[in-house]
Write a structure and sequence with these properties.
This protein has helices spanning 2-29, 35-46, 52-61, 76-93, 114-124, 150-154, and strands at 64-66, 72-74, 102-108, 129-134, 138-144. By secondary structure, the protein is of the alpha+beta class. The strands form 2 sheets. It has a 3-stranded antiparallel beta sheet with strand order 3-5-4, with helices on one face. A two-stranded antiparallel ribbon has the order 1-2.
């Protein structure tokens, strides 16, 4: 029962986020003087049914107000705030992490050898290498500087 309620709440939040995202796009790209016109456009163009009170709450949350000409528009601050919240949700849901201390190493190889060398570097030092960028004759290693194994650096001495 608790999972079912959690899933319904999650779906409702996703619908709200999508509705608000479309609403921001609409008021930025089109001119609306009446909320009923926005409601009609949401329904007819996007298949989103929304009541006037819900639209009004969305507009309050997104700081959508009438400008001097009488058209509903959002402020730049509101758009940035909304994009920030979307980004935060995306980062949390994708288990993203930041490594603030990264060492970068550029390795030149014989032509055609970079892919194989990068493969073995990753297999050997997977817990330290954050990412690799491999070309035909080069490798760029992004390594956690707080956890750079001396064995990795010793490979390139001499």
């Amino acid at each position: 029962m608790e999972n079912s309620l959690h899933n319904r709440n999650k779906k409702a939040k996703e619908r709200k986020r999508k509705r608000q995202q479309i609403l921001l796009k609409l008021v930025d790209e089109q001119d609306f003087k009446e909320q009923d016109d926005i409601i009609d456009t949401l329904r007819n163009d996007y298949g989103i049914r929304v009541s006037q009170p819900t639209l009004s709450r969305d507009m309050d949350e997104l700081d959508i107000q009438k400008n001097e000409e009488g058209y509903y528009k959002s402020s730049q601050v509101a758009r940035k705030k909304f994009q920030h919240s979307l980004l935060k949700e995306l980062l949390v849901s994708s288990n993203a992490a930041i490594c603030p201390n990264v060492a970068t190493y550029f390795i030149r190889t014989e032509e055609g050898k970079a892919q194989e060398i990068a493969y073995h570097l990753r297999k050997t030092f997977d817990d330290s290498i954050l990412a690799t960028n491999v070309g035909l004759d080069y490798i760029i290693l992004f390594v956690n500087a707080d956890n750079t194994p001396k064995e990795l650096l010793e490979l390139f001495e001499d």
